[in-house]
């Protein structure tokens, strides 16, 4: 792909005119030849003014036979056989996407002693469940998992692949996509399927100001990671189908890394799974004042979360940030305290069942998304809220 200069159509006069048309001064005329240098920004102004003396040639789109690729695959994330909820959410979405072109929903599970656990994927809508079960795959290690994933894709040829945008998914999916020379859209928040089996991968871009619609029309498979808590878990329908065992070879298990120790993270800080969350924003003036908000969270059995400025000033860990560059949450109850409701914050909370906002500014955008709004000073509202809660058994 690039600009092609047809020097046989260019004389000195024409070359000078074209050089004058380049806004970046990227052209040079030397020894009877026009050339384009590093300053070129591909604006193609020269192409338009050259009467065919400069042309722009697109890369030949790779001719992929889409009919060889079939099915919407969900990668099953699990820890020692306990399947991560994002997998079930993705199976529900995969069913919807697959229905458009009457494709099957496929599921892939990699690990050890997982075959009986993998059966559960049928109960949430998978038509075929494939299992790579081997002691060498007991714990997540990037190289063996990528080898196995690649083997699966080459053998089964799924058309679209959905992976949870978790720590595991975010490291595995790009590596496998790169091996297959296909594209990957990270952190999708919505997905659509066209009738020509092209997956429309939708995600916020430019700080959440636009929703980008990304497609992979010339390559297969189509790969994306999808945020947790974006889609709903489908209903469980018992199935008696058995998972399909895939062969693991010693070559697949080769790895340059080994696991020395596994430290299980404290569930206290994981806000993604919480049913009740209290989110503190910059309306909370000092770190000491957080005690007031924490007292409310403790009284409600809620997890503490925050907006980005409170991570930036070191009051919270990044794992507690709700929003575009933080976590997506979908609790039953979310109380936003002194949070303005910037688009980037709201992007991570829209699926919450009930949002209560406490803010002194009646015009604060958070009131546009809150189900209940309390206009007033948080330093007065929270103490009286706590007092009321004391009267509730
Ligand atoms: C690319 C990008 C990504 C971003 N990602 C995120 C993200 O993931 N998450 C995120 O949160 N932000 C994110 N931001 C930042 C975001 O744009 C906002 O700047 C931020 O969310 C504002 O935080 P806030 O609501 O706590 O503070 P402010 O906007 O300062 O709002 C404070 C609110 O508190 C109210 N208030 C003040 N005093 C009181 C009081 N005594 N009682 C009651 N209310 C009071 C005010 O009326 C105000 O509405 C991102 C920004 C960019 C550019």
Please name the defining characteristics of this protein.
393 residues, alpha/beta, Alpha-Beta Plaits, Rossmann fold, 7-stranded parallel sheet, binds flavin-adenine dinucleotide
Structural class assignment: alpha/beta
The CATH class label of the largest domain is: Alpha Beta
The number of distinct structural domains comes to 3
Q: What are the distinct ligands in this entry?
A: flavin-adenine dinucleotide
What is the rounded Rg?
A: 27 Å
CATH architecture level-2 label of the largest domain:
3-Layer(aba) Sandwich
Number of strands: 21
Low-confidence parts, pLDDT < 50 over ≥5 residues?
none
Task: Please state how the strands of the largest beta sheet are arranged side by side.
Answer: 11-15-10-5-8-9-16
Backbone shape: globular
N/C terminus separation = 70 Å
Number of H- or I-type helical stretches: 12
The name of the CATH superfamily of the largest domain reads HUPs
**CATH topology term of the largest domain:** Rossmann fold
> Strand percentage, roughly?
15-25%
Q: Mean pLDDT score, rounded?
A: 93
**Major pleated sheet:** 7 strands, parallel
Q: Percentage of helical residues?
A: 25-40%
How would you describe this structure to a colleague?
This protein has 12 helices and 21 strands. The protein has 393 residues and is α/β, with parallel strands linked by helices. The protein folds into 3 domains: 2-57, Alpha-Beta Plaits (2-Layer Sandwich), CATH 3.30.70; 66-253, HUPs (Rossmann fold, 3-Layer(aba) Sandwich), CATH 3.40.50; 267-390, Rossmann fold (3-Layer(aba) Sandwich), CATH 3.40.50. The strands form 6 sheets. Strands 11-15-10-5-8-9-16 form a 7-stranded parallel beta sheet, sandwiched between helices. A 5-stranded parallel beta sheet has the order 18-17-19-20-21. Strand 19, helix 10 and strand 20 (354-359) form a beta-alpha-beta unit. The longest helix has 16 residues, at 85-100. The chain is globular, with a radius of gyration of 27 Å. The termini are far apart. Flavin-adenine dinucleotide binds next to helix 9, helix 10, strand 20 and helix 12.
């Amino acid at each position: 792909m690039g600009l092609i200069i047809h020097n046989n159509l260019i004389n000195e006069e024409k070359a000078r005119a074209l050089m004058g048309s380049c806004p970046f001064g990227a052209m040079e005329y030397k020894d009877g030849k026009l050339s384009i240098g590093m300053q070129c920004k591909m604006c193609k102004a020269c192409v338009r003014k050259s009467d065919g003396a400069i042309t722009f040639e697109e890369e030949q789109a790779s001719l992929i036979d889409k009919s060889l690729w079939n099915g919407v695959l969900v990668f099953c994330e699990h820890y020692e056989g306990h399947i991560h909820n994002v997998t079930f959410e993705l199976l529900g979405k995969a069913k919807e996407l697959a229905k458009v072109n009457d494709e099957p929903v496929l599921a892939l599970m990699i690990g050890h002693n997982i075959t009986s656990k993998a059966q559960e994927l049928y109960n949430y809508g998978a038509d075929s469940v494939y299992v790579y079960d081997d002691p060498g795959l007991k714990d997540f290690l990037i190289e063996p998992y990528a080898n196995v994933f690649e083997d699966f894709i080459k053998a089964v040829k799924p058309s679209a692949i959905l992976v949870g945008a978790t720590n595991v998914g975010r490291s595995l999916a790009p590596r496998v996509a790169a091996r297959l020379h296909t594209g990957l859209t990270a952190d999708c928040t919505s997905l659509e399927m066209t009738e020509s089996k092209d997956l429309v991968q939708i995600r916020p871009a430019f700080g959440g100001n636009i929703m980008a619609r990304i497609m992979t029309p010339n390559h297969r498979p189509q790969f994306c990671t999808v945020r947790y808590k974006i889609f709903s878990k489908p209903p469980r329908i018992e199935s008696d189908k058995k998972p399909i065992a895939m062969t693991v070879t010693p070559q697949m298990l080769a790895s340059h890394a080994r696991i020395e120790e596994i430290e299980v993270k404290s569930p206290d800080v994981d806000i993604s799974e919480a049913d009740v969350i209290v989110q503190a924003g910059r309306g909370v003036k000092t770190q000491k004042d957080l005690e007031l908000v924490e007292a409310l969270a403790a009284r409600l059995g809620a997890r503490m979360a925050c907006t980005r400025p409170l991570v930036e000033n070191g009051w919270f860990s990044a794992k507690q940030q709700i929003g575009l560059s933080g976590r997506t949450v979908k609790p039953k109850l979310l109380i936003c305290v002194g949070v303005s409701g910037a688009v980037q914050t709201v992007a991570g909370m829209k699926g919450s069942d009930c949002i209560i906002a406490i803010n002194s500014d009646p015009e604060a955008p958070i009131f546009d998304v809150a189900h209940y709004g309390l206009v007033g000073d948080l330093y007065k509202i929270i103490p009286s809220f706590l007092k009321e809660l004391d009267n509730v058994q």
